[in-house]
Amino acid sequence: MFSSPESLILQARQQFDSLVALVEGAKNERIDRVEGPIFTELLRLGLTLLRQYVAQHGTGECGPTLVTRTGTWKRLEELHSRRYVSIFGELFLQRTVYGTRAKQKIQAVPLDAQLGLPEGDFSYLLQRWLQERCLDCDYAESVRGLAAILGVEPSVRSVEEMTRRMAADVADFQAQQPLPKVDERAEVLVATADHKGVPMVRRDRPTAAADEESERPGVKRAACAGAVYAIERFQRTPEDVVDEVRRRERAAQRPQPQGKIVWAEMRQEVEGEEVSGREVVVADLCAELDRRDPTQKKAAIVLCDGERSLWKTFAAMLTRPYVTILDLWHVLTYLWLAAKVFHSSKQDRQAFVTYRLRMLLAGKVGGIIKGLKQMATQRSLAGEKRRTLAKVIGYFENNREHMHYDEYLQKGYPIGSGVIEGACRHVIKDRMERAGMMWTLEGASALLRLRVVHTNDHWHDYQEFRILREQKDLYGEAAPHALAA
């Protein structure tokens, strides 16, 4: 039923008067018992005012014919109803539509363009609020939380579809972002990447043969996270790293990453071919290094753990000169494995690791490998201990070219991958690996992209970007909201 703007304004005034009467009549109530009813009545008032805003546009009547870029269309006799779910609640819009004849495709709806309605039923503001909750909470919990506040309760399935649609423009948005502001003293550029497993539903689970990035094949599929940042040089000595007191003292002087941008992707189809999340992310990282330093005057660092697929992908894609650095703290886990092979007491293990850490920081990787082999022979290791030590020695031999820590310290390069470890935990693990969660490849990819946008502090800008794009796609020249931007 169509209500006139005047009748809706009268209704809004009556609702406001009732709201004032509610407050005036509640003098002896506890304040929270007044607060709730006020909020409920404000939502009702907001819905009435929103209906009035729509009513003052009429039905979008533009005469008996309407000329658009796609043709000339005639006005159809019956008004067409459309559902719109706002933060205040649900309303139905009665619209004049244009086309060839009844029961044929509707070619134009002027009111939709005048109001800048979204493609689906849910308002852009409701989508934004709901999806921001979904970034940190599961879909069902997010819907319940919104319903408890606003009384609006979309289905979980509709929210999942909303996520997929909202994430569709993330890549294009990221590609047109301006260069981040960094201090000119931050003359070292760092690219770093890592993988984290995401539990998948059965149809999207990988096999070991089909997906080299899979973790626990048949259960998880790996998502790849990457980051680029700039940082000032920070020269240290080996003792600054080894000695606990000196490390704490130098930590206060350590420069912070600047202009950090994060990416996260899973396996996807690009131009008809399947590519891994690793390939997509590393391509983005390489492009970002070139964009930030087109003349290649800055030192470029690739800082990763010992995952060989990452080194190979960077080698294949990064065309500029760069230095590879193996995350020192990852190396320490292997030294501790070796320490457990030879020693049972914590004190002896600590001494074993500290001694070889000093060697490592002095550039004596070869000495560590030789010493471990000699100890294995002298102790006549066998069984599990022999296999463990072989794993450690193989790790050092395979990554030797990325372990020139004496040079890295002297040149002030970072040697720890805390930035990407934090990104993997925050962007991927904290949301995707909660108890009982199982993801489709499409759903996980979409949510990861939105979490990246939020992590990069681009949430508001991205919402405007994708809304303006959708408006132009929906209404073309008839979308003043898009064209004005």
Any overview of this molecule?
The protein has 20 helices and 13 strands. The protein is elongated, with a radius of gyration of 30 Å. The model has no long low-confidence stretch (mean pLDDT 92). With 485 residues, the protein is an alpha+beta fold. The two termini are 35 Å apart. α1 packs antiparallel against α2, α10 packs across α11 and α14 runs antiparallel to α15 (383-398). β1 (65-68) and β2 (71-75) form a beta hairpin. The protein has helices at 5-24, 31-55, 110-115, 124-134, 139-150, 156-166, 170-175, 238-242, 244-251, 277-292, 308-317, 328-342, 346-361, 365-379, 383-398, 405-411, 418-432, 441-455, 459-475, 480-483; strands at 65-68, 71-75, 80-86, 89-95, 98-99, 106-108, 188-199, 220-231, 258-265, 268-270, 273-275, 299-304, 323-326. A 5-stranded mixed β-sheet has the order 9-8-7-12-13, with helices on both faces. A 4-stranded antiparallel β-sheet has the order 1-2-5-6, with no helix packed on it. Among the domains are: 5-124, no CATH class; 180-324, no CATH class; 330-400, no CATH class. Helices cover 52% and strands 16% of the residues.
Layout of strands and helices, then pairs:
Elements (H helix, E strand, L loop, with lengths): L4 H20 L6 H25 L9 E4 L2 E5 L4 E7 L2 E7 L2 E2 L6 E3 L1 H6 L8 H11 L4 H12 L5 H11 L3 H6 L12 E12 L20 E12 L6 H5 L1 H8 L6 E8 L2 E3 L2 E3 L1 H16 L6 E6 L3 H10 L5 E4 L1 H15 L3 H16 L3 H15 L3 H16 L6 H7 L6 H15 L8 H15 L3 H17 L4 H4 L2
Parallel strand pairs: 7-12, 12-13
Antiparallel strand pairs: 1-2, 2-5, 3-4, 5-6, 7-8, 8-9, 10-11
